[in-house]
Amino acid sequence: MSDELLALRERVETPLADVVLRADDLVVRFPIKQAGRGLRSHTAHLTAVSHVSFAVSRGESLGIVGESGCGKSTLAAALIGLQDLTSGTVSLDGRPVGRTRSREDSRRVQMVFQDPMSSLNPRMTVGQTIEEVLVFHRRVPRSRVKARSLELLALVELPPSVLTRYPGSLSGGQRQRVGIVRALAADPEVLVLDEAVAALDVSVQASVLGLLQRLKAELGLTMVFISHDLSVVRNICDRVAVMYLGEIVEEATSDAVFTAPQHPYTAALLRAAPELHHLRRPGSNALTGEPPSPIDPPSGCRFHPRCPIARDECRTTVPPRVVSADGDVVCLFPLGRAPEDVLLAG
Ligand SMILES: Nc1ncnc2c1ncn2[C@@H]1O[C@H](COP(=O)(O)OP(=O)(O)OP(=O)(O)O)[C@@H](O)[C@H]1O
């Protein structure tokens, strides 16, 4: 048996015991009112998340990347139970979490939002914000609330004096650290970070990323890290899933995605990221045009109208998910792979 087949078998047969968060065939569809003839309007459907599946193991960080509008935030909201699913299942430790989450299930998956200013209550001090979470999720007895709050602040390198400050009096970086503390106060098993550093200046961004890396190493945090910025994801994620028009089109280790992308969309995204210049593959084309509307996605492969290597089949045939030791790709003609190298398609 070839090394590649052995590696594939190992991957497929790895026990799932260590999987904390699992998404199975998630679909989120929004009804959209569209103007018809005259005064009539009709309801169309926009599929923001289309048959998305992945699993995140304990201590692992999965990056989800893609252009604006590809469905990242809707997926994040679905993972934490803020967005109803049209179909599909989110499971924690192998147990599906219901439509209305119990307090315990909601505690276990916490979110860090892009804009802490709109996610933190401006009328509550940082201390009150942390206390609210600690008390709601019953993490410590009342007598330990202050001590635990100070421990949490120290964890994100904020001084004790921040406890009595209001979000409006903090810098952007400090506010985002408070956003992280508020999520950590619930003692979550999974942290979902939606564009968590996107609103920060580059130097502040680097320090918050450094903090997240340290927390990941020290606390063994499991993270789903959502970002449009590939260089951010490269720094922090073990594995990366690339989304296009609601679907995951490639999923592999961070190294594989950044050094040998298999999907032409991933290659084009890399090419469009100036800070990843050194990783550019010769011959791969930059991304052109806008993504099509998710209300009426293209036939066949959704990426075909923008794909530099699309062939006739791509316009008519929905590509299968090709699973290999190098990662999964949804493409009829993956880059760097001859058709006979495709190990398993389905
Ligand atoms: N409540 C809603 N009703 C209708 N359409 C929606 C709703 N929320 C999101 N959408 C649409 O779903 C698609 C995915 O949006 P989403 O915000 O999840 O993408 P994104 O990748 O997070 O983009 P961005 O980075 O710009 O936030 C978009 O076409 C968006 O317009």
TrEMBL record:
PROSITE patterns: ABC_TRANSPORTER_1, ABC_TRANSPORTER_2. GO terms for molecular function: ATP binding; ATP hydrolysis activity. InterPro entries: AAA+_ATPase, ABC_transp_ATP-bind, ABC_transporter-like_ATP-bd, ABC_transporter-like_CS, Oligopep_ABC_C, P-loop_NTPase. Belongs to the ABC transporter superfamily. This is ABC transporter domain-containing protein. Keywords: ATP-binding, Nucleotide-binding, Transport. SMART domains: AAA. Residues 21-270 form the ABC transporter domain. It comes from Subtercola boreus. NCBIfam families: oligo_HPY. Pfam families: ABC_tran, oligo_HPY. The keyword Nucleotide-binding applies. GO terms for biological process: peptide transport; transmembrane transport. Gene3D superfamilies: P-loop containing nucleotide triphosphate hydrolases (3.40.50.300).
